[in-house]
Amino acid sequence: MKKGLSILLVMGMLLTLTAIPSFADEGEKQKPNPDVGVMLQEDPEAAAEVDPKEAKKQQELQKWYDELTEEEREFVHQKMNEKEQEAVLSEEQTKRKEADSLKNYLQKNLSKTQYTYLFNQNGVLEIGVPSAKYISRAKELCTKYTEQTKQDVTVRYELCRYSIKELEKAKESLEKDQDFTQLMKQVRYALVINNGYLELYCTDETPKKFDSWFEKSDYRDMMVVNEYQKILPTDSVGL
Description:
Shape: elongated
Largest sheet: 4 strands, mixed
Oligomer: single chain
Distance between the termini: 58 Å
Number of helices: 7
Structural class: alpha/beta
Strand content: 15-25%
């Protein structure tokens, strides 16, 4: 019974432990508590800005912690680590959602000639553009979005050779190309758009005469060939 009450006390004080800030000035020396891992002032009363009530709470909290058993301290550390991990995961999830929202906004406001791809890389939005002049257009929209939503998403830009419109048109034309379809009719393959280029995946090797056709084709500069690789389940990688 006593142990159960003690654990409940630990849980209650844990909330206080994670909520109490450090009240020292930036220039004032601090020392870490090796057990708790929080920063405590060497002399709480030395700084004029310190709220006496909060300083007293901090001292009481330290006294309370010093009186815990090793088992109770391990329990506190475990719960603190869990809370920190939850906070990190929550922040990462929020960043991914905000990047997706900006991505959707740009897809609606940029024409397919003004960008190559929009890719959410764990909360960082990567934007491929076919010309440097479109970087300014994308930046303008990102600034407008930030002002409207108050969400400041990290954005990275990459200059690409083709726009998404050009890649989609090339993919469609290639799939209707009689020479290409005739060559590939006996092979299991997939043609996908991967960021700034086309990718051809073959589960085996490419057919005979493919190399000679490929060297003379209009798609030589925009397509990468991958032999003995699994076929991707989507044709919109990076979009």
